[in-house]
Design brief:
Strand order of the largest sheet: 1-2
Radius of gyration: 24 Å
Number of strands: 4
Number of helices: 12
Shape: elongated
Order of helices and strands: HHHHHEEHHHHHEHHE
Strand content: under 5%
Largest sheet: 2 strands, antiparallel
Structural class: mainly alpha
Helix content: 55-70%
Length: 273
């Protein structure tokens, strides 16, 4: 994407717009003041627009067309992603880097750990983009990971801490059972109290009608699954040092997919008072 004079070719309008959408995101992006300071710092004129994302996109596009090169966009990204800006916000750097790389992979570029734009693989589909961008968070979004799971472990994912992400994500299921029922117990005791039939013959949280032996077996299997998840991921992770219990991204993805299934069954469960 560069010439012998280190001039980057003009990027498609959609790419420039997507870059602005990431860096000027309403919730997690640069503030309007930060954008103005960065544009001024690298000599790009500001543009009018209804919001900061539109203003940034128009400013970058106008300068790119004037220069007939995307070096201005590359430099803006480098300034915005300078690691020194994120010394106390590693999760913010990681999130922005992942989101930028999902865009840049379509033109064979990426943002590296130094915050610089560098050569990278090229993707032509959204699935390839998520894979090449090496973003676990992107893969989780693509798989439709349940929002309850992400609410408990997004920060750990952003800081590349799969060990603690597995612990926090597994906690989400047990915390939800307590929220649904008001029960204060934990682990196997909690599962037995709310998912097993007990003396009444009806579970407090039922994932089906329990009208047939098959459904009764499914309910018991669901309870056993939750006990197994606690035994495999929550209890050992809470007690073992991270050094002695590595969790790979692939294993974390498989766990979060399973936990998403559990939460979806709870979405439609019948809860007894």
């Amino acid at each position: 994407m560069t010439t012998a004079k280190n001039t980057y070719a003009v990027w498609p309008h959609a790419t420039v717009t997507a870059i602005a959408d990431v860096l000027a995101d309403t919730s997690d992006g640069l503030t309007g003041r930060e954008i103005s300071l960065l544009l001024s710092q690298i000599g790009i004129a500001e543009a009018e627009g209804p919001n900061k994302r539109e203003r940034l996109a128009r400013a970058l596009w106008a300068r790119q067309i004037r220069d007939q090169a995307s070096n201005c966009v590359v430099r803006f990204i480098a300034e915005a992603m300078a690691p020194v800006r994120y010394t106390q916000k590693l999760d913010v750097f990681s999130r922005r880097c992942d989101d930028l790389n999902e865009v840049l992979v379509h033109i064979g570029l990426r943002v590296n750990e130094a915050g610089k734009v560098a050569r990278g693989p090229v993707a032509s589909t959204l699935g390839e983009a998520a894979q090449h961008a090496n973003s676990l968070r992107a893969e989780l979004r693509r798989c439709g990971t349940h929002h309850q799971v992400l609410a408990y472990c997004t920060r750990e994912i952003l800081t590349k801490n799969a060990f603690h992400a597995s612990l926090e994500a597994t906690k989400s299921v047990f915390d939800r059972l307590r929220q649904l029922t008001g029960e204060q117990r934990d682990g196997s005791q909690l599962v037995d109290a709310v998912l097993m039939p007990g003396s009444t013959g009806t579970p407090r949280v039922a994932i089906n009608s329990g009208a047939t032996p098959t459904e009764t077996g499914e309910q018991k299997g669901f309870a056993s699954l939750l006990k197994g998840l606690a035994s495999m991921y929550r209890n050992p992770t809470a007690h073992d040092p991270r050094l002695n219990r590595p969790v790979s991204d692939d294993e974390l993805l498989e766990l979060l997919t399973t936990l998403s299934m559990v939460h979806r069954r709870l979405d439609h469960a019948r809860v007894q008072p």
